[in-house]
Amino acid sequence: MFLARLSARLGKRQAALEYQWMKRASSPVPLDQMVARRVAGEPLQYILEEQPFGPLSIKLRPPVLIPRPETEHWTIRLAELLRPTRTLSVLDLGTGTGCIPLLLCHLLPAGTVRACGIDVSLDAVNLAAENAALCGFSFPGTSRNTFRPIQASFLDPLFPHKILDVNPPFDVLTSNPPYISWSEYLELSPEVTQYEDPKALFGGPDGLDFYHAIASLVARKGFLNPGAVVAVEVGDGQAEDVQDIFHCTAHLNSELWLDPWNKKRTVVARTPARSRS
């Protein structure tokens, strides 16, 4: 009966997969309630209250943005690029669940990552703090990698002044910012618009508002260290526009990384290295 209800909503193949995941879930929610919520359109990740992200299991609850596979893909590639030989100061803008800095903490050698994540949503900051504790990266002063989420808006002209524990310069800046344009937002499925926070999705009329803000931060003297890496996720068709924003505002050249579906997904730049005298 449960499987038939799911099949009517999702199709037989997807229903069979999700039904198995529900039966194996450690959630205290009874199976019949899980099925009813899924049939009503709630995303499976919120029902199971978790999402795999690399080797990590990220705790989830609405309305915090659900981590996507394309974000996992470029975060793993970024970890391979960094190869730190010293402790890196990492800033993640619009951190959500904390998935990006937490995966970097997991993949990079112990003691080489000191990360903080910024989000305007208190729901996101509280959830990211829980994930930091669950993943074992919430203990500053230890030899482990650490991550701390902080509630703040990086759109504030005064950011990061007077915000404790946000201390430039940074070695790595990451972001999966809101990048959905107004026209695209109107076409999103109800599974997205009815459950995920619109503040984590809507990036202004053309979807580019947050990239202008990030580029302005990057352009500030002393915000990033020489040789710092900047990696930002972009929406479909936005890659070249974001490259232009970073070039014009912060005078940075960048490269594009493709996601597993061959879409231009990540703009990656590096600040000039310190010159040798």
TrEMBL record:
SUPFAM superfamilies given in the database record: S-adenosyl-L-methionine-dependent methyltransferases
Record carries keyword Transferase: yes
Keywords associated with the record: Methyltransferase, S-adenosyl-L-methionine, Transferase
Keyword Transferase in annotation: yes
Recorded superkingdom: Eukaryota
One GO term (biological process): methylation
InterPro entries found in the cross-reference section: HemK-like, N5-glutamine_MTase, SAM-dependent_MTases_sf
Signal peptide: none
Record-level Gene Ontology MF annotations: protein methyltransferase activity
GO cellular component terms attached to this protein's record: mitochondrion
NCBIfam families in the record: hemK_fam
Protein name in UniProt: S-adenosyl-L-methionine-dependent methyltransferase
Organism lineage string: Eukaryota, Fungi, Dikarya, Basidiomycota, Agaricomycotina
